Amino acid sequence: MPPSVSATTTNPPLYSQRIIRLFSLAFSAVAGGVLTASNLRAVGRPEEARKALWASVAYTVVMAVLISLVPDSSAYGAYAVGTGLAGGYGLNSYADKFIPNKRDFPARSVWRPLAICLLISAPVVASLIYAL
């Protein structure tokens, strides 16, 4: 008897939706877009991966411009949290169209993207603190 299809086919590991939202919140929608694009590439959807990445870049630029138009007395932190979460949820809903059963995929380690994001954001935060 031949083995079943599910026993012979292994699904590639993917970043979880929670991690994508967290990276979008903590770093930017671009970081979440990179993780979403990686997931889409892993399941054989390179065109959708490219669209997710470019959409996250465009979303981040548009939100940065809109937030810069907000009066100085406003709470920028609340806007940043809201736009980060909205970007993460948008990326998750886009990926759900192409990866229907995410629970069937093993979880991918988050340590490498976390290290890269911290290496990129640490000098930016340090320069902001130094400028004050």
Keywords:
mainly alpha; transmembrane helix; disordered N terminus; 0% strand; 132 residues
Can you describe this structure?
This protein is an all-alpha fold and 132 residues long. It has one domain (13-131). Helices cover 70% and strands 0% of the residues. It contains six helices and no strands. Mean pLDDT is 90; it is low at 1-8.
Q: So how many helices?
A: 6
- Largest beta-sheet characterization: none
Structural class: mainly alpha
- Output mean pLDDT: 90
Query: Which percent bin holds the helix content?
Result: over 70%
Number of strands: 0
For the record, the count of structural domains works out to 1
Question: Could you give the topology of this structure?
Answer:
Elements: H1 5-8, H2 17-26, H3 29-42, H4 46-68, H5 76-96, H6 111-131
Summed up:
This protein has 132 residues and is mostly helical.
